[in-house]
Amino acid sequence: MMLKSNSHGLLVLIFAALLFLLLSRIPYGHFIQWPFVIVTTFVHEMGHGIAAILSGGKLLNIELYQNASGLARTQTIPGWRQAFIAGGGLVAPAVLGGMFIVAGKSRTASSRVLLIFSLFILLSCVLWLRSGFGLIIMLPMGAGLLLIARKGSAMLQHFVIQFIGVHMLVDTFTRTLRYLFSSSVNVGGAQRHSDSAVIAQHLIGGQFFWACAIAILCLAIFYWSLRHSYLK
Asked: Model confidence over 134-156: pLDDT tens digits?
């Protein structure tokens, strides 16, 4: 493969990845990363909610917890729609992360996508987010991203959108992949079926099959985004 001509966007992406790796290794670096972990959980839960709306159901509310888990309460007809909603949360970080990486091709796209994402966070806080911890994290995050989108330099906007995209990529390769092959998860102190287990309950095929299928899909999304943006 050869690099495309957009070398500036690629350099920003590499710098964002190196900073992410550095923060993972230095003392207290995880405290800086932690809000972005919660953002990824937020995206996961909103993925459930958007899938519910797209399948004719409703998103009632979402909650985020200190252990980086979350819960989306939805209303839908039992059956395949429940599997669709469960899958929506699993692929949402990969889809959004891929979009952010593609947006990182240009500073103009980075600014616009960052503005839309910040407004989406703030609107979701008003309409659906109903946990104190979630609001403490997401309201300042949404406001901060909005400030950067409106007043920040083009370079800062470009970097931030790439950094969030890298974080969602890493999260997909680590936390999401582990979660996919788990049958249950601790959500707010209570054990619940994992999303892949819910999918297996409502569709043909076992949990392992659907976990593998979704893992391949998520990895393919990121591969496409990187290939489309920077490689040929």
From this structure: 999 999 999 999 999 999 998 89
Q: Which two tokens stand for residue 129?
A: 């987010």
Mean pLDDT value across residues 45-62: 97
- What's the predicted TM-score (pTM) here? 0.90
Smallest Cα–Cα separation from 149: which of 107, 177, 191?
Answer: 107
**184-187 vs 70-75, strand pairing mode:** unpaired
13 touches 166 (CB < 8 A): yes
Alpha-carbon distance values, 129 to 61, 72, 108, 132, 136 (Å):
6, 9, 30, 9, 11
Specify the residue for token string 């974080």: 167
Q: Which residues, 6+ apart, have CB-to-CB distance to 156 below 8 Å?
A: 148
